[in-house]
Amino acid sequence: MRAGAGASSSRVGSKVSVRAFAPAGADPLQAGSTLELDDEESRYLIKVRRVRIGEALEVFDAGSVWIGRLVAAGRRARVRIDGPRPPGAPVPTRVVLLGLPDAAATLEAVTGACELGATQLVFVRCERSSGHLPSAGRLERVMRAAMRQCGRPSPPELLGAPPAEPWSLANALAHHPQLPGVFGSVDDRDNLTSLIDSRATEPAEPPMPKVPRLASHRGPPKPSRPASGREVSSAPIDPSSAPIDPSSTPIEALRLLVGPEGGLTPAEIEAAAAAGFVPTRLGPWILRTPTAVVALLARFGSAPAGV
To answer: I want to staple 128 with a disulfide (CB 3.0 to 4.6 A). Which of 51, 71, 247, 262 is the partner?
Structure first.
């Protein structure tokens, strides 16, 4: 549908914080077209955000972002499209393997993963997982709310979500085996150096193999204490080797393993180590599962380089 000429490029390039989703099956958007939103999106704009006629907003449409302005505010809001927003830089691959906590914590973890740039989120049934997955509809609503908040135009891919069953840990650890992997630890020493830099000094007792830069560690190293689990043995690291700041050493693709509330079992940690995962310190305290998701994604730079 057409509704006159589009707005100036200054409007198209402007930043706005109000966002809505184009209805599924809508005609492809183009500058000058008018889009009618569905009841839910209309209610969000008019009742929740109190957008007024003429005010600018962003419209998400199948991964693209368009700038428009509200032109009608009845039961079905109507938005006139000014033009596309220039696409941003591609985000690095971040595959989160989420050991299922309870439903509320799962939704919180999904929110954090969406806002911090996870590209895939795999739901994993671990030994200490409890409860059940939220419904597909609830997961979609939570991701939509997160996308509205942060401006992300497309959601992470969900694997093991309803109507499918959560993956086993064995299947999850075999997913993208070529990628390096990390999991959170509360140990005082940081094995991150062995994941992203081969300059770490080998200790005298016992010797530890050097790992090539960005190579997936198939060691396996002896696991350290997980961020949400019980203490097990820790592989020695030379304390003179300074940990490398992940923000200064970009990793284009990475797997991030997070255990459920109660943590991974020692056997699960051994399996993760055998699959190439190494522990990295997230602080001195045991974290809740949603907090660990946010901490790992924040630490390992899910934003594009230079952002």
So the answer is: 262
What's the confidence (pLDDT) of residue 197? 40
Give tens-digit pLDDT for 53-70: 999 999 999 889 999 999
| DSSP, residue by residue, the chain | -B-S----HHHHTS----EEEPPTTPPPP-TTBEEE--HHHHHIIIIIS-PPTT-EEEEEETTEEEEEEEEEESSSEEEEEEEEPPP-PPPPEEEEEEE---HHHHHHHHHHHHHTT-SEEEEEE-TT--S-PPPHHHHHHHHHHHHHHH--SSPPEEES-TTSPPEEHHHHHTSSTTS-EEEEE--SS-THHHHH-TTPPPPSSS------TT----SPPPP--BTTS---------TTSPPPPGGGS--SEEEEEE--TT---HHHHHHHHHTTEEEEE--SSPPPHHHHHHHHHHHTT-SPTT-
- CATH code 2.40.240.20 region(s) in the chain: 9-84
Q: pLDDT digits over 265-303, tens only?
A: 999 999 999 999 999 988 888 899 999 999 999 999 765
CATH number of 93-299: 3.40.1280.10
Residue by residue, what is the 3-state secondary structure of 39-65?
A: HHHHHHHHHHCCCCCCCEEEEEECCEE
Q: Where along the chain do the CATH 3.40.1280.10 domains lie?
A: 93-299
Q: How does residue 187 score in pLDDT terms, banded at 50, 70 and 90?
A: low
The predicted-structure confidence for 6-23, as pLDDT tens digits, reads as follows 333 334 444 678 999 999
Residue whose C-alpha is closest to residue 34's, from 59, 65, 63:
59
Domain 9-84 is in which class? Answer: mainly beta
